[in-house]
Structure formats: structure tokens, C-alpha cells
Amino acid sequence: MEKDSNLLAIHGGKPVRETLLSYGRQCITEEDIHSVVETLQSPFLTQGPKIKEFEQKVAEVVGAKYAVAFSNGTAALHGACHAAGIGPGDEVITTPMTFAASANCVRYCGGTVKFADIHPDTYNIDPKEVQSLLSEKTKAIIPVDFTGQPADMDEIIAMAKDHNAVVIEDAAHSLGATYRGRRVGSIADMTMFSFHPVKHITTGEGGIITTNSEHFYQKLLLFRSHGITREHTLLKNTSQGPWYYEMLELGYNYRMTDLQAALGISQLSKLKLFVDRRREIANIYNKHFSKNPCIRIPYQMDDRESSWHLYIIQLELDKLSCTREVIYKALLAENIGVNVHYLPVHLHPYYQKLGYQKGIAPIAEKLYERIITLPLFPAMSNQDVNDVIMGVEKVLGAYSVN
Hints:
Blueprint: H1 2-11, H2 30-40, H3 49-62, E1 66-70, H4 73-83, E2 91-94, H5 101-108, E3 112-115, H6 127-133, E4 138-142, H7 153-162, E5 166-170, E6 178-179, E7 182-183, E8 190-194, E9 207-211, H8 214-223, E10 228-229, E11 246-247, H9 258-268, H10 271-289, E12 295-296, E13 304-305, E14 311-315, H11 324-333, H12 349-353, H13 362-368, E15 371-374, H14 382-399
Parallel strand pairs: 2-3, 2-4, 4-5, 5-8
Antiparallel strand pairs: 1-9, 6-7, 6-13, 8-9, 10-11, 12-14, 14-15
Helix pairs in contact: 1-11, 2-9, 3-9, 4-5, 4-8
């Protein structure tokens, strides 16, 4: 009851906003709706021409030779791990500061996950920590472009080559980002993008793998469609007619629909607009919050350009008279839809049961206790942005020890 009274005392019964502003949301236009309706009226709702068109457009945008669309980003990561040949006895290194799918995809294939701690500034996986975990069992490395800022890809790729390992870049947060002048999606052996509604563009649900490898491309195509092919050059029995197909390996039904692809094609045409707006909002936040001693704003490397999927502040708790939970609840009371990204993966009960211990990634674990995600999405108005700033300043001002 005391916490609730404190929250009421902060805003005097009147929050800075009348309605809740979510931390992320899709931006759907009439053009998007028309594209989906047009496909609904076409002969193909799935397994039609829109899939290939979407794949080609994504590959072109990110500078890759090939792209294979999947039903969602997790399925795409699963496909990438399969294409990389991950199986029982193989180890894959990834970051704990990510959504669980970045590690789960390894488990789907029977592999063992090794968690490398993060860099305290960028919150991305630390190449030095990766180096310490490399062994003859290392089959792949899965760096995650946390919040939209690319990981240290050159260093990670160099280490992977020395160990004959595959690099699968989890770029769920970084469509439209660049790393040392190169577009994310063209750098790693395979790169995954997600099209969940809170991401840079959406297909409702959906994901894609981009690659420059024809070998991985063919493996991915088989994997997402039951392991079945009609491709004549891949068939074991070539004496049959044009109706003939074969299942060459055990695959899954991870196909994207034409409805999703149609939405994705329309959304992709607005990618630059969406990313530019995200950067604009992030710059406004940085300008205001950099002056607040209770906040540490996101650190950005000079040699890469984030696409700003998330804007995460780190609370300077020694300068506040309360816990992170109180700040979180107070911001919600102001109708600022905050979130926390993420509980380090190794702390989830599933991974605890596998034997992962608290303490293996101390930087990530400490960070988790101090971070809050603020609203950031292209459809935010300038008033929405101002509301977030006002809400944060109001709440932190009420709990500041200075």
C-alpha cells in the first residue's frame, strides 16, 4: 500500500498522459492494407510469387545474394542452426542479453549453448569473452545486435574462421543498421531478421535468413518446407514426370504466407523512413536524458550506425531512493509503457535446470537489475516523445536523492 500511495503522490492523481503509450507498435498504412487485400483476391494465399518477391527485395536492401523467408524469426534461427550443421556434441557461443530464441535455436538442434558475457558499454557480446569459450567443439557463434547496434562482427568472424565455425548474426533488432560502412545482412555467414510487429518492419509474424552462400541457401530452402524439393538437380530419381517431388531430409513447415510477404513488401518500401524516425527520437532522448544524473544513456560506437529497435536507459540506483521496480511502476502510472529487455537467458528456469549458474555472466546480470526500456517506434508523435521525457523526468525527480 505504501508504494501505491507514493505513486499517487508523484502524479497527484493525474498522469502525464491520459492513455497508455506502448513501448513498441507497428505502423500500418492504407498502402499496406491495400497490398494485403490485393493478395487476398489473388490465386495465391501461400506458396505463391509474393514470397520470392519479398525475399529478393530484402536481399537487395541488405546487400546479400540470397534470402529465405520463414514463418517467424525463431524458425529462421532454427533453420540457420540446421544449415550450419549443429548437432549433439557441438557448442555454440551466444550472449545471455537477448531473447531466449537466440539460444533455444541451438537446443532445438541438440547443441550446447555457451554464454559469453557482454561489453559493459554497448551491452553486446564481448569478443574477449567469446575467445575464452572457443574450443574444438565450437560449431558456431551467434552474436546479437542488441537494441539495433551491430556487434563486433569483424573480430567475431576472425575468431570463427580460426576455429572453422559458422557466424549466425541475430539481427532481429538491426534491420537498416550499418557496421563499418557495410549493411547488416551482408556480413555474417547467415543473418536473421525478425518481422514481429514491434520490429522495424512487420509481416505480422515472420523472419528471414540472408546469406551469400549457395550451400546454406539450399539447406534453408529444404528445411523450411518439410525437406521436400521438386528441383530436378537435387532429385535422387530423375526418371519421373514434372509432378514428382522427394523428401530428402527431415524438415519443418516453417513457410511464410503470401499475405505476410505482401505486407512485408509494402513495409519494406518505408524502411528508411521508419529507421530515420527511430534515430530522430533516439537523438531527442539522448539530448534530454544525458543531462540527468540518474540515467546512463545508450552508448554508441563511432564505426557503426544503429537502427534503434530499443531505447534502454540504465538507472544510476545509487542516486535514487528506491528500486528499479518502483521506477518501473511509477512510469506505468504515468501511462508510459515501459518494459525490460531482457532477463539474461541463463537465468530462465529451463536453463537453470540444465545446470547454468547465476554468476557466469556478471556484467549482464548486473545490467539486468538496472535497465528500463522506453517507448520507441516510428508512429510516435512529437507529443508522445515529449510525454515520455516528461514522465521520466517527473518520476526520477521524485525519487532522486539530490
